[in-house]
Specification:
The structure is a homodimer of 221-residue chains.
Chain A (H helix, E strand, L loop, with lengths): L2 H18 L3 H10 L4 E2 H8 L3 H13 L3 E6 L2 E6 L2 H17 L3 H9 L6 E2 L1 H9 L3 E5 L3 H6 L6 E2 L5 H4 L8 E6 L6 H11 L4 E7 H6 L10
Parallel strand pairs in A: 4-8, 5-6, 5-7, 7-8
Antiparallel strand pairs in A: 1-3, 2-3
Helix pairs in contact in A: 2-3, 3-4
Chain A binds a DNA duplex (30 and 30 nucleotides) through helix 4.
DNA sequence: ACAATATTCCATGGATCTATGGAGGATGCC
DNA sequence: GGCATCCTCCATAGATCCATGGAATATTGT
């Protein structure tokens, strides 16, 4: 094998990791995994994929080293292989948004155009500690259990309409969900506004919160 | 278009950026562009690609927003679209190295197994300022011109054997090149050792130097 | 306007990727 | 052991990607 062939082999190995990031469905899977580990079946359902298709995508991710597995009885739990994988995924999205013109319209088409007031992570922390706001986690319960902002209340967005009374009505609500491109908090804030509640949204979500090394609270396993 | 379709559209847009990173040849092109802008022809030759093939890959990179172009007369200069693109490329390589078992053997097969002593960026700075070492840039002259470590001497590795006398012989030499996976500094250090010179290698190279926001010196344009 | 140079566009065959149904393996329960 | 569940492996058809040669386009110089 010549020098050029060895160079190609090395760069092809890097490209294998890039290839894992080259499918929208695989990125959706990474998005889910960034919230915590999940079984193949749960991932397939959450991503709207055929089971075998989801399994194949997960194999691709595993081959690239982006995810790892753990067997528990009959099921296999997938998880991100490390924090650096989440960082890579987040940076990919940021670069795409900055340099690719098509992202912004696709983003507003998906998330909605309402200009709900946003707060950033630091502001949320200080205002929550001051008791000025209540923090609301609108992700599915299992994701809340796997790790959430300390002190946050969990009401999955599908249950929010009927459980809205559980929220104290003397303070503003700050809703958050998975990350900068997650629709759940957008939906939640719209719904709260319809019910006449003051509601804000965290600029991004749990993905970025973890990457910023802010405190995370998890249910006892 | 339903909600799921809008979500797919957004994630497919992210995936377009991932797709740009999914080919070894495109990563080699990014590697070259991280050193400074270049024409299509120069990139094709440096990467060992057919001109039309190189052009096609560059179009892919451009569509993903990773590179930008500038026309100067009859030629078109490609460059990275931003520092964040270099950061994404560097992080991709780091994640691949950390989590993909095949990378390490491919790396040593390409770069060689000699355990030449390495210095990191901080050590290089302090020892160069103290006059204990001379810093040697072994990249092609055009890359040196586009930006180099302040005070570094430029001797492209192909000319090193015949120009070795230009190096002062009372201090150690620290060679560097493009980045952590660039073979040039490895070759240079081997060659210097063969000539009985004390030589070290910077752990990585210009790519990481720029990302660390360390001072860069460029030739007047 | 014409020729020369640099690059992109187009068409094509071969390789690779995606989604999917069905078979096969591993584990746990009875 | 027998059976159900969960997941992976295999085969396949359709779509997409890659490398390459030749045509088309844009700019410069004569």
């Amino acid at each position: 094998m010549g020098d050029a062939a060895r160079k190609s082999a090395l760069y092809d190995a890097f490209a294998l990791t890039g290839k894992a990031l080259s499918s929208g469905k695989r990125l959706e899977l990474l998005d889910l995994l960034a919230q915590g580990e999940r079984t193949v079946d749960a991932l397939a359902k959450a991503a709207g994929l055929n089971l075998t298709t989801a399994s194949a995508h997960l194999q691709t991710l595993k081959q690239a080293g982006l995810v790892a597995t753990r067997r528990e009885g009959v099921r296999i739990h997938y998880r991100l292989a490390g924090d650096d994988v989440a960082a890579l995924y987040a940076l990919l999205r940021q670069v795409a948004r900055t340099h690719q013109a098509a992202v912004e319209p696709a983003r507003t088409a998906y998330l909605g155009t309402d200009a709900a007031q946003e707060v950033d992570r630091e502001e949320l922390l200080t205002r929550a500690q001051a008791g000025e706001v209540v923090v609301l986690d609108v992700r599915p319960g299992e994701e809340y259990a796997a790790g959430h902002i300390p002190g946050a209340i969990s009401i999955p967005v599908e249950e929010l309409a009927e459980r809205i009374a559980e929220l104290p009505d003397d303070v503003e609500v700050v809703a958050y969900c998975r990350g900068a491109y997650c629709v759940l908090a957008h939906d939640a804030v719209r719904l709260l506004h319809q019910h006449g509640r003051k509601a804000l949204r965290l600029t991004d979500g749990m993905l970025e919160w973890r990457l910023a090394d802010l405190p995370v609270e998890a249910e006892a396993a």
